[in-house]
Amino acid sequence: MDMAVSDQKQAGNAAHNSNDGVDRPLAIEARGLVKRFDGTLAVDGVDISVPQGAIYGILGPNGAGKTTTLRMLLGIIDPDEGIRRVFGHDRPHDIARLIGYLPEERGLYPSMKAIEAIAFMGALRGLTLPEGRKRGLELLERHDLAHAADRQIRQLSKGMAQTVQLLGTLIHRPKLVVLDEPFSGLDAINQGKLERMIRTLADEGTTVIFSTHVIHHAERLCEGVAIIAGGKVPYAGSVEAARDRIPAQVRLETRAREGAWLAALPQDARREGDFFMFSLPETGVEPLLRQLIEGDAGILSLSIERAGLHDAFVHIAGEAAARQLEADSQMEGGQ
Amino acid sequence: MSIDMSEKARLSNLQAALVVARRDFVAILFSRSFLFFLLGPLFPAVVFAMSGGLGAAANQNAPDVRIALQMPSKDMASLMDAHTRLENELGRGGVPHFYLFDPAEGHDPIDPEALIADKSGIYGAVLTGTLDNPVLTGTSDKLRAWSGQVTMHLALARTGADVSYPALATSLVTSSGATVKDQRRDTAQISMTLLFLLMMLLAGMVLSNLVEEKANKIIEILAAALPMEAVFLGKLFAMLAVSLVGVGVWFSLIGLVILSGSDFGGVKQTLIGMPDPGVGWPLFSILFVVNFSMGYLLIGSIFLAIGALASTVREVQTLSMPVTMLQLFIFFFASFTLIDGAPLLEMLAILFPLSSPFAMTARAAQSEELWPILLAIGYQAMWVAIFIKMGSTLFRKRVMKSGGGGHNPNKRRWFGLRRAAS
Questions:
Q1: Which residue in A233, A289, A318, B420 has the most C-beta neighbors within 10 A?
Q2: Kind plus residue range of the DSSP H or E element containing A129
Q3: In b/e form, how buried is each residue of A281-318, taking b as 16+ CB within 10 angstroms?
Q4: Overall pTM > 0.95
Q5: Who among B7, B19, B406 is closest to A184 (CB)?
Q6: What percent of chain A lies above the pLDDT cut of 90?
Q7: What is the CATH number of the domain that holds A181?
Q8: What is the tens place of the pLDDT at every residue in A57-69?
């Protein structure tokens, strides 16, 4: 957990101590969120802190509790236990104008024109319809969709309809954007576009929180992640810290196969083909290098590989969750 | 970095409801299905009007049912003389008509049973015998209806006296307490029935409303942006507004038809014949609209919650039957308001929120007191709020209970009432 809060009053004014050492106020804070459905524990004590301006990922396999967690954070459903605060507010609907939400199940009124759909979504967040239409047209032009403004949603391609919905999510210029599986169903080009859009939002100071079961998206975009599996969050914090939980791995290739220098290798060293793999020693690699040279090992190559988020996920959430995550990703890719 | 909270960060519940209501209202009003919906009740109305006209024409052409008469000629002459005198006093409709089988004119003796069995159906009964020993043959209902009058004819024919009838002075009063009470009860009954029919026609629309939202997967966007109570209220407002447009169109069309001179299957005569309700027509009309609105909001909020729990149109159709039965029950329960001497049942009908608008419509027709009606409207508004709150809570608990589960095709999506949660 990246911060501890003793009571609700403190929670309202909580701040996040980020890697750059600057205290940033929290956009989202959840403590001990629990949700049961008909006795089934869907979410079990989730703690999350998302600093303002961050890109934050909720990473976990399907059925882990991501959507339920997001719905609780947004006030669509209430937690059975725990507290949630969005910009310090207990009731997210009180600050609906500051929030944009793209649910996983995309949906728009099929008979509505694209521009009207965007304006309507703005109206739900407090924009007037004329203002929504004006902004909507600007957004559509910026995304090369101006020609689709007066077309009904049912006449648009799936990708265009998804873009229209995303623009509707952003039309009121929210300070917090919540995206539930935003990359789901998008082709590689549109995934790239969406990644750029998320980065732009964050550059403009908007907090973006999204759920995903694809590690690469989280790794590429996120400053912080919450790893969720079986309704629990075993890790919530920066991506860097998650990766640092696993020591860097050293990959060594030598000309000699045997020799006294073998004794200098760390105890966890294992042979993988032509390579030796072992954790980076606490003392660093220099003393080992000296011993290898003196032992005439004949170093062909040596690289230090930092653990990725995938390794961190396996380490934190376990093999089973990682396998499920991978299966979900493959299923997604196969569609 | 800090967020400026100075600007108003949310819509009020009423504003939020109006955003939803406006969208729904426009979407429904300009849909093709609404046109069919508008035209729907006109088809039975036209059939009703046409059948009324045909019925009237058929009645016009139908032969009078008569009593076949065969007696000795002298007796028959005396009887017909009595008939003329009675007809003068009672009017043509007040006496039975006779078809004469006079032996003097060459008619053979008649067989009463064969004559009655005749397929032409002209003869309802047959009077034979003599003035001193008359025999009336007929079915039990005809005998019951005509025995008295035939006896009166026979008595007058036998005495042969010139009975004089005294001139009866009449003093006309426009109404009596008993008449007003009876007539207002009629007004109450007609109004309640009209209210029931309108709600039956229109409430079904509410039932399927949220299914569309779920099918289009909009509902989560609405639920994230607005309190669910506001979404429900907005949808109810929209449906009410659509209903009022529908009712307005129907009544205007009927009005135009009546103004053009048609009786519209007796509707015109019925309307003209309806007595003034207790609170007077202008106020009664307003209260009728208000009671319709409250009744619609009450039953609509329940239907909306039920419809919200249904996943498919088929489920909605399955739910329609018990819902219709519920409406019927409510209507019959509210009818206790019309029964004298059942104050407890009347009070229960008023207090039961769903029957209250019906009961208060009946009361507005029968009673001149306004304050109980206004009090009841406030009471009904309170129940509308309670039902909306309960419905939205149920919706959040029962429907928004699981995620999409990514793209796993083996899992059902959001709104199936599945047990497992994401």
A1: A233
A2: helix A129-142
A3: eeeeeeebeeebeebebeeeebeeeebbbbbbbbbbbe
A4: no
A5: B406
A6: 54
A7: 3.40.50.300
A8: 999 988 889 999 9
Structural domain that includes position A264:
247-305
The residue that leads in pLDDT, A309 or B397, is A309
Average pLDDT, chain B: 79
The answer to whether the Cβ–Cβ distance between B216 and A52 falls below 8 Å is no
Residue A243 contacts B where some CB pair is shorter than 8 Å: no
> CB distance from B226 to chain A under 8 Å?
yes
Shared-domain flag, residues A124 and A267: no
The answer on A168 and A115 residing in a single domain is yes
Query: How does pLDDT run across A198-212, given as a tens digit for each residue?
Result: 999 999 999 999 999
CATH number at residue A289: 3.30.70
Q: pLDDT band at A101, cuts 50/70/90?
A: very high
B-chain residue closest to A168, CA distance: B221
Asked if residue A280 belongs to a domain, the reply is yes
User: What would the pLDDT profile of A298-321 be if each residue is shown by its tens digit?
Assistant: 999 999 988 888 888 888 888 788
Shared-domain flag, residues A254 and A206: no
| Domain contains A3 | no
